[in-house]
Design a protein that fits this description.
The chain has 150 residues and is of the alpha+beta class. It is 27% helix and 16% strand. The strands form three sheets. A two-stranded antiparallel ribbon has the order 1-2. Strands 3-4 form a two-stranded parallel sheet.
Length: 150
């Protein structure tokens, strides 16, 4: 395990690609509302991850994907393996798609990433809370969730 703080990464949310997302909405959340947890990085191998079977989400229906994903870690795995950034859809001020649509398309912008995470976890006791931020040059949306640790 990592022994000091510089060997840990602070993670506040499941997030898609920040790169030039072009999202245009800002919502303020109190600091004590943002869940924070630490994840070891650099050379630490998770034993559960080593023994885990690969899930091909592209072969699942959207309903099966929602049933398959039970934890925030599995939602991040879904996003990493099945979802990619849609560079033709930069900016999310004009529309938002359903999980069913996003699952079949398998790509989207940051709002789609956040919406997908919320849809995957909302049946597992996680509230569908999205945080959207913007300034004059860029914007981004993420999905927030609370654990026993915060």
């Amino acid at each position: 395990m990592a022994k000091n703080i510089k060997d840990k990464l602070v993670v506040i949310a499941l997030a898609g690609s920040l790169g030039n997302s072009g999202c245009l909405t800002y919502t303020t959340m109190p600091l004590n509302f943002v869940p924070v947890f630490t994840v070891p990085i650099g050379g630490v191998v998770n034993e559960q991850a080593k023994n885990k079977e690969f899930v091909d989400y592209s072969k699942l229906t959207w309903q099966e994907a929602i049933d398959q994903v039970q934890t925030p870690e599995q939602a991040q795995e879904y996003l990493d393996q099945h979802f990619s950034t849609d560079y033709d859809e930069v900016g999310w001020h004009s529309k938002g798609e359903s999980f069913k649509y996003n699952h079949s398309k398998a790509k989207g912008n940051c709002l789609d990433y956040a919406t997908v995470a919320a849809a995957l976890l909302s049946d597992n006791g996680y509230s569908p809370i999205l945080l959207a931020m913007s300034d004059s040059n860029t914007a981004h949306a993420v999905y927030l969730y609370r654990t026993k640790e915060g």
